[in-house]
C-alpha cells in the first residue's frame, strides 16, 4: 500500500535511539534534509522584507502561504499561531503552521525565511472553519467528555468544543525520552499545568511517570522497582509479552499512559476516566526488562460493542507489524468473550489503514480457503469482526452484489489473490495457544 499523506521517512526520522546516558546515536533510517539554520533575524533583513511586503508582516493567524518543508520543497500552509522571537518591539515572529496537504502531526514552528511571502494569499475567517471542525465528534466521545466534567461545569456545547480545539491547536511537548528512545511528539496532550513550560519530558519506561529533568529521571530509575508494566502477563511468545492493566487498580499508570498516548493521538479529545478501562500493553522483553512497544485500551463494558478504544504503536516501533498484532489480539479477546467487536470511531488516518489492511487479509484468507458459499454472519462468527465492518470492507473491494434483497459475496480466486497482494504483508501472528486470559468480571 502506498504511503499515506507523508513520505515514509517522516516516522523514522522523528526518533533517535539513545545508546547510553544521554548520548544519541544517529537517527534511524534516512533523516530528511535538515532545516536551514535559524536566521539571526537582522534588523536590516526584516526592514527590507517589511518594506517589500508593504505591511504584510507580521503575518496574521489564518494566513495561507507556501512554506519550505523538511523535504526542501514548498507546500501550502495555514498559519495557526505566531509568537515573537524576543520581547523587543522590532523582533521577528515565528509561526506555527499547518501543512494543509498533510496530517496535523506535522504542524510545526517555522522561521520567517521558510515562508514564501510572495505567495501570501488570504486571511480566512477562523470562526467559520472552527464551526465545521469543532463538531466532528461521535456520540460516544461526547458522552465521555461529559463524564470527565468537573463538578459544577456546565454541559460542553459547541462553543466549548471550539475552545478545546483552540486550546489544543499548538503542540505543547515537543519531545519525550522513553527508554532507549528520544521521540518527537505529534499532537497536544493535556499534561497538568506545572508542565506547561517544558518542551521535553522524561518518562520512566516501566511505570510511565514523567519528569521535567533528566536528573530526576536518573534518580527515579534507581528507586523504581518495576521492570515491566503493572498487572498480569496474559501472553508470552518468544520475546513478545502482553500485560493486562486494570485502570481501577493502577490508576496512576493508566493516567500516565493516557497522557503519553495523547501525544500521538489527535482525535481522542480527552483522557478518560481510567477506572472504566483495561489496558493491554505490548512489550519486547530482554534482560533489562519489558519495553513497551504499543498498547490498546478497551472499555470494561461497551454498549456499542467496541472491543478497542485507542490503539498506539510508539513511533520507533511503527510499520513493523505490531499494529496489526494489537488489532488481531483485540479480536482474539472478543472471540474468547464470544462477542463480535469493532474499534471505537472515529479512526485516525493510520488507524483506518491498519484496520482496513487487517480486515482484508483476514477475510480474504478465509474466502480463499472456503469451498462453497459463506455468509457475512458466518464470517463474523469466525473472526469476531462486526458484520458492518465485513460488509464495508468487501464492498470497498467490489466483492458484494445485492441479489433478491440479500448481500451476496462474489469471490473469484484470482481477484482475491490480487487484493491480498495489494494489502501487503500480514502483521506479527498472535499465537492463541500462548494467550492465558479470562474475560473481565466485576469483583466484589
Ligand atoms: N504510511 C503509510 N501506511 C502506513 C503508515 C504510514 N506512515 N503507518 C502504517 N501504515 C499502514 C500500512 O498499510 C501498514 O501495513 P504494511 O506495513 O503492510 O504496509 C499498516 O498500516 C499497519 O502497519 P503495522 O506495522 O501493523 O502498524 P503500526 O505498528 O505502524 O501501528 C498504528 C499502526 C497503531 C495505527 C500506528 O500508526 C499508530 O500508533 N498511530 C498513531 C495513533 C493512531 O492513529 N492510532 C489509531 C487511532 S484510531 C483508534 O484508536 C480506534
Ligand atoms: Zn518508574
SSE map:
Elements: H1 9-13, E1 15-20, E2 23-24, H2 43-53, E3 64-68, E4 74-84, E5 93-99, E6 108-110, E7 115-116, H3 126-133, H4 139-147, H5 158-167, E8 175-178, E9 181-184, E10 200-203, E11 210-211, H6 214-223, E12 232-237, E13 240-246, H7 251-262, E14 277-286, E15 289-299, E16 306-308, E17 311-313, H8 322-337, E18 342-343, H9 349-369, H10 376-383, H11 387-396, E19 400-403, E20 406-409, H12 413-422
Parallel strand pairs: 8-10, 16-18
Antiparallel strand pairs: 1-2, 1-9, 3-4, 3-7, 4-5, 5-6, 8-9, 10-11, 12-13, 13-14, 14-15, 15-17, 19-20
Helix pairs in contact: 8-9, 9-11, 9-12
The structure holds acetyl coenzyme *A and zinc ion (ZN).
Acetyl coenzyme *A binds at residues 1, 3-4, 11, 264-265, 308, 310-313, 318-324, 343-344, 347-348, 350-351, 353-354, 357, 424-425, 427.
Structure characteristics:
444 residues, alpha+beta, SH3 type barrels, Arc Repressor Mutant, subunit A, 6-stranded mixed sheet, 5-stranded antiparallel sheet, 20 strands, globular, binds acetyl coenzyme *A, binds zinc ion
Amino acid at each position: 500500500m502506498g504511503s499515506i499523506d507523508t513520505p515514509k521517512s517522516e516516522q523514522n526520522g522523528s526518533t533517535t535511539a539513545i545508546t547510553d546516558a544521554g548520548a544519541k546515536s544517529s537517527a534511524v533510517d534516512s533523516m530528511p534534509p535538515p532545516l536551514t539554520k535559524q536566521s539571526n533575524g537582522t534588523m536590516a533583513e526584516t526592514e527590507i522584507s517589511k518594506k517589500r511586503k508593504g505591511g504584510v508582516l507580521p503575518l496574521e493567524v489564518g494566513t495561507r502561504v507556501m512554506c519550505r518543508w523538511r523535504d526542501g520543497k514548498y507546500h501550502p500552509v495555514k498559519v495557526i499561531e505566531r509568537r515573537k522571537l524576543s520581547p523587543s518591539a522590532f523582533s521577528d515572529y515565528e509561526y506555527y503552521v499547518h501543512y494543509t496537504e498533510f496530517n496535523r502531526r506535522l504542524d510545526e514552528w517555522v522561521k520567517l525565511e521558510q515562508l514564501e511571502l510572495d505567495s501570501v494569499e488570504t486571511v480566512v475567517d477562523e470562526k467559520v472553519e472552527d464551526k465545521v471542525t469543532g463538531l466532528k465528534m461521535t456520540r460516544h466521545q461526547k458522552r465521555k467528555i461529559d463524564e470527565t466534567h468537573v463538578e459544577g461545569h456546565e454541559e460542553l456545547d459547541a462553543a466549548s468544543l471550539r475552545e478545546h480545539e483552540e486550546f489544543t491547536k499548538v503542540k505543547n511537548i515537543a519531545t519525550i525520552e522513553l527508554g532507549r528512545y528520544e521521540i518527537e511528539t505529534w499532537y497536544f496532550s493535556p499534561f497538568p499545568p506545572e508542565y506547561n513550560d517544558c518542551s521535553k519530558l522524561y518518562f520512566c519506561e516501566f511505570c510511565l511517570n514523567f519528569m521535567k529533568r533528566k536528573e530526576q529521571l536518573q534518580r527515579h530509575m534507581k528507586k523504581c522497582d518495576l521492570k515491566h508494566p503493572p498487572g498480569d502477563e496474559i501472553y508470552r511468545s518468544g520475546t513478545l509479552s502482553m500485560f493486562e492493566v486494570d485502570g481501577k487498580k493502577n490508576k496512576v499508570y493508566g493516567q500516565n499512559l493516557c497522557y503519553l498516548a495523547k501525544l500521538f493521538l489527535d482525535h481522542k479529545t480527552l483522557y478518560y476516566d481510567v477506572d472504566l478501562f483495561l489496558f493491554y500493553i505490548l512489550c519486547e522483553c530482554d534482560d533489562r526488562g519489558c519495553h513497551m512497544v504499543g498498547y490498546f485500551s478497551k472499555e470494561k463494558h461497551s454498549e456499542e460493542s467496541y472491543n478497542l478504544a485507542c490503539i498506539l504503536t510508539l513511533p520507533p516501533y511503527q510499520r513493523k507489524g505490531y499494529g496489526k498484532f494489537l488489532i488481531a489480539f483485540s479480536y482474539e479477546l472478543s472471540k474468547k468473550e464470544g462477542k463480535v467487536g469493532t474499534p471505537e470511531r472515529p479512526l485516525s488516518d493510520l488507524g483506518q489503514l491498519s484496520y482496513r489492511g487487517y480486515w482484508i487479509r483476514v477475510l480474504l484468507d478465509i474466502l480463499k480457503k472456503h469451498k462453497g458459499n459463506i455468509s457475512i454472519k458466518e464470517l463474523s462468527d469466525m473472526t469476531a469482526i462486526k458484520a458492518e465492518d465485513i460488509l464495508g470492507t468487501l464492498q470497498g473491494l467490489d466483492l458484494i452484489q445485492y441479489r433478491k434483497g440479500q448481500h451476496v459475496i462474489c469471490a473469484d480466486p484470482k481477484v482475491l489473490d490480487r487484493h491480498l497482494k495489494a494489502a501487503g504483508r500480514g502483521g506479527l501472528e498472535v499465537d492463541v495457544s500462548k494467550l492465558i486470559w479470562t474475560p473481565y468480571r466485576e469483583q466484589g
